[in-house]
């Protein structure tokens, strides 16, 4: 069966995450995609995603693959899917790929961005669903202290203290390539970008919670260093809300077959 690679953007506000849920468990991105693919292909189609975004988390460039019936391979998949998908999600690219491509296992890295709203006096209504309003947390965040804390997370570490319960993984060590404060698109925002080989469950939201706690003066970067070393989740600051988080890119590199490393999607700073 021909294999398709899909790049999907979605507003996660009204989704119960990426992954299919048990009956009655809520509307999911994977479920909506599979329903649309089933209508167009006339058969049941299983979709495999590059990662499982949580309830309320957004995406500019989630990547998925699926196998479709041979007699439907020639459909204009991007246009056809967008004609039947709900308005809060869209396919930004669709292409045939070799049958050894796997959205999750072929990936070499992911890029997330987390957006904070820092203006204490107001929040722009159209940004409310896509930020964490920290104006109530602190009238001012110490960006120098946050930058120092961010530097602690770069490199290869055991991030057990920044993983929430509910995930079964063989190890909690991860290579974080960069944690960077980016120029915002909108005054009143602060944007943090996280690049890594992979992330643990709610790891980016937990790292962001630590950054905000440091910026607000509730803990020091040295406190966070001790938390990281301890491996104890109970010592770390609270998890940041899902609303500010967006998956902005999935990276695919040399898979041993001579294919060049490339970035599927690299949007501008910030998120929609």
Number of helices: 5
Parts with pLDDT < 50 across at least 5 consecutive residues = 255-272
Order of helices and strands: EHEEHEEEHEEEHHEE
Q: Averaging pLDDT over every residue, what do you get?
A: 91
- Given helix and strand content, the structural type is alpha+beta
The helical percent reads: 10-25%
- Give the termini distance in whole angstroms: 35 Å
Q: How would you sum up the major sheet?
A: 11 strands, mixed
C-alpha Rg, in Å?
Answer: 19 Å
What share of the residues does DSSP label as strand, in percent? 25-35%
* Quaternary structure: single chain
Tell me how many strands there are: 11
Identify the overall geometry.
Answer: globular
Q: How does this model look, in words?
A:
By secondary structure, the chain is an alpha+beta fold. Helix content is 20%, strand content 28%. The chain is built from five helices and eleven strands, in the order E-H-E-E-H-E-E-E-H-E-E-E-H-H-E-E. The protein has helices at residues 29-41, 77-84, 143-153, 203-215, 221-230; strands spanning 3-10, 47-49, 58-67, 89-97, 107-117, 132-133, 155-158, 173-182, 189-196, 245-252, 262-263. Strands 1, 2, 3, 4, 5, 6, 7, 8, 9, 10 and 11 form an eleven-stranded mixed sheet that branches. Strand 2 (47-49) and strand 3 form a beta hairpin. Helix 3 runs antiparallel to helix 4 and helix 3 packs parallel to helix 5. The longest helix is centred in the N-terminal third of the chain and has 13 residues, at 29-41. It starts with a strand and ends in a 9-residue tail after the last strand. The model is unreliable at 255-272 (pLDDT under 50).
């Amino acid at each position: 069966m021909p294999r398709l690679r899909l790049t999907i953007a979605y507003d996660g506000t009204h989704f119960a995450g990426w992954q299919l849920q048990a009956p009655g468990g809520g509307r999911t991105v994977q479920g909506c995609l599979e329903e649309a693919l089933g209508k167009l292909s006339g058969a049941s189609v299983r979709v495999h995603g590059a990662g499982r975004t949580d309830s309320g988390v957004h995406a500019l460039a989630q990547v998925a693959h699926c196998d479709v019936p041979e007699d439907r391979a020639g459909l204009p998949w991007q246009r056809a899917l967008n004609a039947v998908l709900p308005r809060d999600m869209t396919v930004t690219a669709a292409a045939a790929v070799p049958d050894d491509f796997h959205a999750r296992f072929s990936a070499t890295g992911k890029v997330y961005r987390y957006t904070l709203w820092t203006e204490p006096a107001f929040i722009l209504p159209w940004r409310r669903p896509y930020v964490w309003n920290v104006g109530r947390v602190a009238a001012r965040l110490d960006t120098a202290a946050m930058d120092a804390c961010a530097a602690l997370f770069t490199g290869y570490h055991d991030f057990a203290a920044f993983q929430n319960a509910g995930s079964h993984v063989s190890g909690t060590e991860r290579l974080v390539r960069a944690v960077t404060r980016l120029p915002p698109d909108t005054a009143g925002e602060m944007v943090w970008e996280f690049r890594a080989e992979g992330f643990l469950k709610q790891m980016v939201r937990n790292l962001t919670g630590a950054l905000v706690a440091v910026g607000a003066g509730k803990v020091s970067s040295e406190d966070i260093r001790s938390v990281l070393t301890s491996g104890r989740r109970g010592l770390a600051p609270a998890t940041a809300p899902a609303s500010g988080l967006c998956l902005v890119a999935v990276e695919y590199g040399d898979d041993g077959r001579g294919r060049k490393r490339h970035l599927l999607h690299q949007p501008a700073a910030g998120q929609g």
